[in-house]
Amino acid sequence: MHQEPTAQGLGRADAERIARSLRALADPTRVQLLALIVESPDARRSVTDLADALGLTQPTVSHHLRVMADEGLVERSQDGRLAWYSIAPTRMTEVVEAMRDDPVAAAVAPPVLERIASDLATRFAGTLSPETVDRYVRESYRLLAERAGITRYLPSLTARFAGDRLDALTRVEAPSQSPSVLFVCVQNAGRSQLASAILRSLAGDRVRVLTAGSEPAGSVNPLVVAALDEIGVPLGGEFPKPLTDEVVRAADVVITMGCGDACPVYPGRRYLDWELDDPAGLSMDGVRRVRDEIVVRVRALLAELGVNGA
């Protein structure tokens, strides 16, 4: 039966196959799995090996491999009790091109995560086990890559995010004398970044400040950065990051800004909800108004916390 060509000259079946392959490769975890298989000396990896390399469960890895096998991207072979996966020879060029075009796969290889985990294990030696540190590093990488969609400077941001989470974990076990404030909004790209930068500027190291988003964006709103710069407040290399359990548990005060019920509630924490306009979609004048209102609220918060100089 004759197939009608598409606008690009492809048969309908070919076009549909390519579309399915693109969907299969849209998940960053699958691209990472393919990269690990390609980089393997014998060009194949077992489910156990892949799960260990990415810090995932074996059922999760098996699911992703099964999807790619169904689309003909990988092939499965049995060797004793182990299932091995390799790239389908006819799809190798397509897979390599996908990895080359994917900044997440190109930015971080397992050795980089191992280096980050090793450095942080040194930092938290005597407090947290190397296994705990390694788990947090790999989880932090996945959260930034998959939930926040961060691709640029992913290794260094993974180290920063994992370090903050591990530090929060230690504070849960041994609370610090200085108060800790967590700002949470939806994208962690506007209101929470404004508030955290202003609080850091006013309080210095007398208050520990963290931010998170229920649905983090890929980058901070540039108008927010500009509005802070106008009053001489640096953003300090901050970036959107997902909300995680340990940062909430480590906070003395949790301030939410339009994120609804996304933030878990723990006894002993003080919860405040600041009703503020979302800078997303506002003009520069609108962002300035939000910034100035936050300045007032932050100064009042410092006074309540008993931090001088507010």
Detailed description of the structure:
Helix content is 52%, strand content 12%. It has helices at 12-24, 28-39, 47-54, 58-70, 92-101, 103-107, 110-123, 130-147, 154-173, 191-203, 222-230, 245-249, 284-305, and strands spanning 44-46, 74-79, 82-87, 180-185, 208-213, 253-257, 270-273. The protein has a 4-stranded parallel beta sheet, covered by helices on one side. A 3-stranded antiparallel beta sheet has the order 1-3-2. A hairpin with a 2-residue loop joins β2 and β3. α7 (110-123) packs parallel to α9 (154-173).
CATH architectural category of the largest domain: 3-Layer(aba) Sandwich
Order of strands across the biggest sheet? 5-4-6-7
- Total number of β-strand segments? 7
Count of helix runs:
13
What percentage of residues falls in helices of 4 or more residues? 40-55%
Number of individual domains: 3
Reported by name, the CATH topology of the largest domain is: Rossmann fold
Structural class: alpha/beta
Largest sheet: 4 strands, parallel
